[in-house]
């Protein structure tokens, strides 16, 4: 597989994994980590019918971000599966850590009431989601051997 195809595949798989993790966290009742509906309702202004719009936005961001992860990992010049996996996971951690702060700050401006409050638990949930995302990007890249 070529580099671009592999990065796109990694983005699809990783975004799906992250979406499922955040859905499971929300479903468990621990905290509201429904990134898909939060994104969708930020555009539509309402919770109803926000999932489709949210999925489009989430995948539209997840695929190019996977390409950036792949480019960054390729600059490291390693063929070690373990190191590629570790690098993807580390990028996910840094990305999730930074995003957690941004999320908490932006939440108060959300147009839908149930997403106006984002506390430490929401930030941690998104950190977990991003770590899973980075792990899956690294896994796909490492298994593909295109780097």
Describe this protein's structure:
It is a single chain. The chain has one domain. It has 147 residues and is mainly alpha-helical. The protein has five helices and no strands. The mean pLDDT is 95. It has helices at 3-28, 35-44, 51-75, 81-106, 120-144. The protein is 76% helix and 0% strand. Helix 1 packs across helix 3 and helix 4 packs antiparallel against helix 5 (120-144).
Write out key terms for the chains shown.
5 helices, 147 residues, mainly alpha
Main sheet: strands, sense, barrel: none
Structural class category: mainly alpha
Form type? elongated
- What ranges have pLDDT less than 50 throughout 5 or more consecutive residues? none
Helical residues, percent: over 70%
What number of structural domains do the residues give? 1
Please compute the radius of gyration using only Cα atoms: 16 Å
Write down how many β-strands occur, each being a DSSP E stretch of 2 or more residues.
0
Percentage beta strand: under 5%
H and E string? HHHHH
Number of helices: 5
Distance between the termini: 11 Å
Mean pLDDT metric: 95
């Amino acid at each position: 597989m070529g580099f671009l195809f592999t990065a796109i595949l990694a983005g699809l798989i990783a975004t799906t994994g992250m979406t499922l993790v955040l859905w499971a966290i929300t479903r468990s009742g621990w905290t509201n980590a429904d990134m898909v509906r939060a994104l969708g309702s930020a555009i539509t202004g309402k919770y109803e019918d926000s999932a489709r719009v949210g999925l489009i936005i989430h995948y539209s961001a997840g695929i190019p971000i996977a390409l950036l992860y792949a480019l960054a990992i390729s600059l490291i010049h390693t063929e070690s599966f373990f190191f590629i996996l570790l690098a993807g996971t580390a990028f996910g951690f840094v990305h999730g850590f930074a995003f957690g702060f941004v999320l908490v700050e932006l939440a108060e401006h959300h147009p839908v009431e149930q997403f106006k409050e984002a506390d430490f638990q929401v930030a941690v949930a998104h950190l977990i989601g991003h770590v899973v995302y980075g792990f899956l990007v690294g896994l796909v890249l490492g298994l593909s051997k295109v780097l």
